[in-house]
Amino acid sequence: MARRGRGVDRDAGASPSPPGSELAVTAAQLFGRFIKQSRERAGRTQAELGEIAHLDRSMVAKIEAGERVPDKRQVVAWEELLEVGDELSDLWREVDWYPAIPRRDWFERRIQMEREATALRTYQNQYVPGLMQTEAYARAVYAQAVRRPDNLKRCIEARLQRQDRFLRQCPESPLLSAILTEESLRTVMGGPEVMAEQCAHLVRLTELANFIIQVVPSDCPTVVRPITAMSIISMPNGRDWVYSESVDSGHFVNDPAQVQELTLLYARLAADALSTAESAQFIRNVMEGFQ
């Protein structure tokens, strides 16, 4: 795919993995498969592996699915029980458990995760988030990088379609929490009319049960803000992923320590930002400035 400008998501031409295959097979999943196969060959149960490693059966199941990381002591205990020599320890040392992965299909992967996410928390410091953009605002953003009218039309349509799952008011609609800097509201895209319409749309979103929108005003020097935009994506399997972008790559991190650190940063930022009611009024004030 061609490079894109900053702030322009690549919705068009996406070919995500089939539903149910959240990501390509990871090293952690392959390690889990090796444990499962060794356990079945040895005629052992997940409960037996859990007992010797001081884990409950459900945690062993998650390790076999590649969703949890075993520690070295557990691996050594299982080697003896499963009679696999040092193979398990050797493999455990080789696995890169917490890769921060930039991938070619990074945006297709992001779209697929959005389709399955139970919650999405995002911090934006330059633009209104794509899932909250109006058609006119999205057109202005994409027009910076997409020149052909047919491609531009496809990009806009794809972006609006991504919003459907969050806008559909039903029990299954996932949480969408957004913290926006004042700069992201005042950066003019497409002219004053487009911005006024975009602000009005944000105000309407604040009235939806699954949307939480907060604003961080520019005159709050003590607020600690992330260096770049980021999203925390919660998946049905209980795992959280932190997503961020560089100029032409997306980066996904699920190292528990890093995810916890960034989740705490987001929580502190939410606590320091304006309340939802104050934020809605702030957006109205910005909107009046564009009218």
Features:
291 residues; Endonuclease, Chain A; alpha/beta; 434 Repressor (Amino-terminal Domain); seven-stranded mixed β-sheet
What does this protein look like?
This protein has 291 residues and is α/β, with parallel strands linked by helices. It folds into 2 domains: 68 residues, lambda repressor-like DNA-binding domains (434 Repressor (Amino-terminal Domain)); 190 residues, 2-Layer Sandwich (Endonuclease, Chain A). Helix content is 48%, strand content 13%. It has a 7-stranded mixed β-sheet with strand order 1-7-6-5-2-3-4, with helices on both faces. Strand 6 and strand 7 form a beta hairpin. The two termini are 38 Å apart. The N terminus is likely disordered.
Question: How many beta strands in the DSSP annotation?
Answer: 7
Radius of gyration: 22 Å
Order of SSEs? HHHHHEHEHHEHHEEEEHH
Tell me roughly what share of residues is in helical segments: 40-55%
Low-pLDDT stretches are 1-23
Label the structural class: alpha/beta
What's the arrangement of strands in the largest beta sheet?
1-7-6-5-2-3-4
Q: Name the quaternary structure.
A: single chain
Q: What's the helix count?
A: 12
For the biggest sheet, the summary is: 7 strands, mixed
Strand content: 5-15%
Any idea what the shape is? elongated
Rounded to the nearest angstrom, the distance between the terminal CA atoms is 38 Å
The chain-level mean pLDDT equals 83
CATH architecture type of the largest domain:
2-Layer Sandwich
Examine the coordinates and then state which fold CATH places here, giving the name of the CATH topology of the largest domain: Endonuclease, Chain A
